[in-house]
């Protein structure tokens, strides 16, 4: 039996017969062929859940120093984020952080551990912290689909997901909004309800039929496409309010057709004197009028930059009159 097949055997036993059966099989393997056991632990096909449940046995058998770098980092990471410490004898060994191997190990934890989410409270805690670090420190886009899947699975099961939502939106990436929006098309009412909540959409909109769900999804994508250059993330989360608004639209930037930083809300390039003069007029209008002006300005700028350059120089009252009429030819 080669190492890969042995690793797969451990996975099958854990999933089919449970953790204790997996541990018994591991101890039997170690007693018979110790060197082969280490190869099994270091096998590329081993999942984090199996390493996690074997932590006590790895310590008891003093195998930590024989593990590969991926596994050593993973076990030290568990000790760092969990209250119970299993590696007291190696506590003096620093946890390698902020290097490629560290982040690769965290991604392995999350990628291979996600299918076993719910294994234990401690296990889920490790997944959440690894996802948070990868998102906040690495801005790793590959993590977002995994995190989104975990959020909606936990919501379906009724388990805790608020920390993961906070980490997810900490990416401040429009891709995160698209991943949530995908759930608007789900057949599961829990998915659509949570998607509406996280995207700050009205939850009284009927989403009972496939057509209604597709319409809501298409409508949101259209809104996202229009406002993408002017979106900023608020930092609100479910830990603060039951109805968070994860992002907002900078109407001033939309009016001037100036792309904003999603992290800082401000335009990525400085305003010219002419733009600042236009903005001063815009700021004095009512909020509903700002929305009309910003929407019209963005649309006109996309369709006919030349006409937009003419329109934006008009007094704000004339701009608003044209915008309300929806005119495109006003020369």
Salient structural properties:
single chain, 331 residues, mainly alpha, two-stranded antiparallel ribbon, 62% helix, elongated
Topology:
Layout: H1 3-17, H2 19-32, H3 34-41, H4 48-53, H5 55-60, H6 69-81, H7 100-113, H8 121-138, H9 143-157, H10 162-169, H11 174-182, H12 189-198, H13 210-227, E1 231-233, E2 247-249, H14 251-256, H15 273-283, H16 287-303, H17 305-311, H18 316-325
Antiparallel strand pairs: 1-2
Helix pairs in contact: 1-2, 1-3, 2-3, 6-7, 7-8, 8-10, 9-10, 11-13, 16-17, 16-18
Can you tell me about this structure?
The chain has helices spanning 3-17, 19-32, 34-41, 48-53, 55-60, 69-81, 100-113, 121-138, 143-157, 162-169, 174-182, 189-198, 210-227, 251-256, 273-283, 287-303, 305-311, 316-325, and strands at residues 231-233, 247-249. Among the domains are: 1-140, no CATH class; 272-325, no CATH class. The protein has a two-stranded antiparallel sheet with strand order 1-2. It has 18 helices and 2 strands. Helix 1 crosses helix 3 and helix 8 (121-138) packs parallel to helix 10 (162-169). With 331 residues, the protein is an all-alpha fold. This is DUF4116 domain-containing protein.
Report the β-strand fraction as a percent range.
under 5%
How many alpha or pi helices? 18
Q: What is the mean predicted local confidence, pLDDT?
A: 90
Major sheet attributes: 2 strands, antiparallel
Give unreliable regions as ranges: none
Structural category is mainly alpha
If strands are numbered along the chain, what order do they take across the biggest sheet?
1-2
Number-wise, the strands total 2
Shape: elongated
Distance between the termini: 82 Å
N-to-C series of helices and strands: HHHHHHHHHHHHHEEHHHHH
Helix content: 55-70%
Cα-based radius of gyration, to the nearest Å: 26 Å
Protein name: DUF4116 domain-containing protein
């Amino acid at each position: 039996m080669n190492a890969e097949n042995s690793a797969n055997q451990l996975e099958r036993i854990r999933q089919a017969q449970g953790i204790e059966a997996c541990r018994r099989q591991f101890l039997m393997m170690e007693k018979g062929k110790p060197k082969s056991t280490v190869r099994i632990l270091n096998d590329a096909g081993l999942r984090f859940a199996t390493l996690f449940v074997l932590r006590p046995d790895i310590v008891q058998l003093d195998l930590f120093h024989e593990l590969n770098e991926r596994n050593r980092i993973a076990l030290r990471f568990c000790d760092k984020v969990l209250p119970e410490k299993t590696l007291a004898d190696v506590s003096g060994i620093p946890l390698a952080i902020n290097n490629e191997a560290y982040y690769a190990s965290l991604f392995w934890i999350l990628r291979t551990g996600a299918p076993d989410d719910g294994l234990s409270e401690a296990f889920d805690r490790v997944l959440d912290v690894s996802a948070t670090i990868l998102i906040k420190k690495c801005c790793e886009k590959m993590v977002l689909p995994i995190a989104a899947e975990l959020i909606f699975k936990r919501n379906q099961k009724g388990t805790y997901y608020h920390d993961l939502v906070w980490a997810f939106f900490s990416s401040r990436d429009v891709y995160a909004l698209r991943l949530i929006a995908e759930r608007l098309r789900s057949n599961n009412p829990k998915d659509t309800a949570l998607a509406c909540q996280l995207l700050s959409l009205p939850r009284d909109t009927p989403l009972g039929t496939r057509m209604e769900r597709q319409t809501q999804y298409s409508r949101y994508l259209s809104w996202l496409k229009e406002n993408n250059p002017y979106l900023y993330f608020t930092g609100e989360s479910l830990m603060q309010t039951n109805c968070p608004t994860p992002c907002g639209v900078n109407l001033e930037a939309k009016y001037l057709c100036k792309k904003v930083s999603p992290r800082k809300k401000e335009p990525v390039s400085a305003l010219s004197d002419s733009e600042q003069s236009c903005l001063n007029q815009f700021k004095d209008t009512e909020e509903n009028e700002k929305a009309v002006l910003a929407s019209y300005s963005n649309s006109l700028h996309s369709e006919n930059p030349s006409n937009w350059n003419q329109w934006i120089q008009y007094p704000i009252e004339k701009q608003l009159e044209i915008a309300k009429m929806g005119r495109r030819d006003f020369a």
